[in-house]
Write a structure and sequence with these properties.
The protein is mainly beta and 456 residues long. The protein contains five helices and 24 strands. A hairpin with a 2-residue loop joins strand 2 and strand 3.
Length: 456
């Protein structure tokens, strides 16, 4: 895991802004520097150094936007601009985003804060920013032409409002929305409770669900796509490029998820049950919660769920729509299971000697074969685990729970070392003599649940 953005990066971004034609020295002094990021690794959280204490969020493969204080107001600076986003090692997308990345940086503040957000437009067309789910004055809502005039290229607008409720929110373009959303103009917005002990957790993760339609070998999303997306992403990353959720055993954990795709996503986490503790409408009272293992995130919706990390291991977390855990899918590929392809392969090799017929026995071979692909293209199935190919892509990652993981350590601990007798094995016709290893799931049901503590 890399460090937070460096001072050189922040100062470099500010220098670039100050030297552009749209700025004057007076303007540059009155506007906070625009921090930028060119790294797609998960950045360490920004721990609060003044004001109300809170547990900062960790944005998977993302970062949190720094702010400055100005007479009691928290000031942020977003720059809407073309960006390059590494979706996974070996594939880069040319998107539109904020401050060097898509999605843009997470904005974090506290209930009761007054905030001021400067938005500078470096896009080739006008834009606006909508603060999705946040209660604010109508003129600050960010709908181009309705709330305020559009932000034209080279101009800076100021949004200023009080944060009257805590929760998980988003921000995204609301000018030429179909194009700009398809190009990646979005980000997350977290407002922490003003009471530091209300709904306190030990680790707080943040995931935005988004999707793109990018042809193999190309770089720019197709903005007219309505349903046939081929890259399903978390924070504009696709597996195996999505970082793990690293957790210390016995931590209280929150996972916040927002959905800005064009379909719902049933997010399923292995190894645990959990409770949904917050929706886009607010915190859920304890008496209204129930245990789940899958939470469906609607279009435009936000959900937060919590659990106690009592079970060590490597646990899959993914969208349960099976096509959403694939990359670069071809929608017109025929099903060939049970088909004899020998003659087809023989004839095709007359013109393409390296051709390999696949699919007659399923598609699992694609997880282990390294076939030539167009430049800037990720295999449909990819990624390796400790026992072989994972045969996954898209919206997939791993929750890694470890004994002794330091509270501020989000570094990947590697693969889990399973205790003897706790890994499934090939049947050899005889019962193993080894005594079954003690497992947490041998406890009484009331001691097992992963959703025990947080009453608010």
């Amino acid at each position: 895991m890399t460090d937070n953005i460096s001072r050189r990066q922040i100062l470099g971004a500010g220098a670039a802004l100050a030297s552009s034609a749209m700025w004057t020295p007076t303007m540059a002094k009155s506007i906070p520097e625009a921090a930028t990021m060119d790294n797609a690794a998960t950045q360490a959280p920004l721990v609060p150094t003044s004001g109300v204490d809170y547990q900062p969020v960790v944005t998977l493969n993302g970062w949190t936007l720094p702010h400055r204080m100005n007479n009691g107001v928290k000031e942020f600076h977003l720059v809407a601009e073309p960006v390059e986003r590494e979706m996974s090692p070996g594939m880069v997308a040319r998107l539109w985003g904020f401050n060097g990345q898509s999605p843009g940086p997470t904005i974090e503040a506290v209930e009761g804060d007054r905030i001021r957000i400067f938005v500078t437009n470096r896009l080739p067309e006008h834009t606006a920013v909508h603060w999705h789910g946040i209660l604010l004055p109508s003129g600050m809502d960010g709908v181009s032409g309705l709330s305020h005039p559009p932000i034209k290229p080279g101009k800076t607008f100021v949004y200023e409002f009080d944060l009257v409720k805590s929760g998980t929110f988003m921000y995204h373009s609301h000018g030429d929305e179909m194009v700009q959303m398809a190009m990646g103009m979005m980000g997350m917005f977290v407002v922490h409770p003003k009471d530091p002990q209300f709904m306190r957790v030990d680790r707080d993760f943040l995931i935005m669900l988004n999707a793109f339609d990018i042809d193999p070998g190309s770089y720019i999303p197709k903005v007219m796509t309505m349903t046939d997306f081929n890259l399903w992403a978390w924070n504009s990353r696709i597996f195996p490029g999505i970082d793990p959720l690293v957790i210390a055993k016995n931590d209280r954990v929150r996972v916040r998820v927002g959905n800005l795709t064009m379909t719902n996503h049933p997010i399923h986490m292995h190894g645990y049950d959990f409770e949904v503790t917050c929706t886009d409408g607010g915190w859920v009272p304890k008496e209204a919660r129930w245990p789940e293992v899958t939470v469906d995130i609607p279009v435009g919706g936000m959900r937060a769920y919590e659990f106690d990390a009592v079970y060590e291991g490597d646990w899959a977390i993914h969208c349960h729509k099976s096509h959403h855990t694939m990359n670069a899918m071809g929608h017109d590929i025929p099903t060939q299971i049970g088909t004899k392809l020998d003659m087809h392969q023989k004839k095709t090799r007359r013109v393409q000697p390296q051709f390999m017929a696949m699919g007659s026995e399923g598609m699992a071979d694609m997880g282990s074969m390294e076939m030539p692909l167009p430049d800037n293209t990720i295999p449909m199935m990819t990624g390796w685990g400790p026992f072989g190919p994972l045969e996954m892509g898209g919206m997939f990652s791993v929750v890694k729970v470890r004994e002794g993981q330091a509270s501020n350590d989000y570094g990947d601990p590697g693969w889990f070392q399973h205790p003897e007798g706790t890994v499934a094995y090939e049947w050899k016709g005889e019962v193993p003599t080894a005594t079954r290893a003690k497992d947490a799931r041998t406890m009484a049901p009331t001691e097992q649940s992963g959703v025990q503590k947080n009453d608010g």
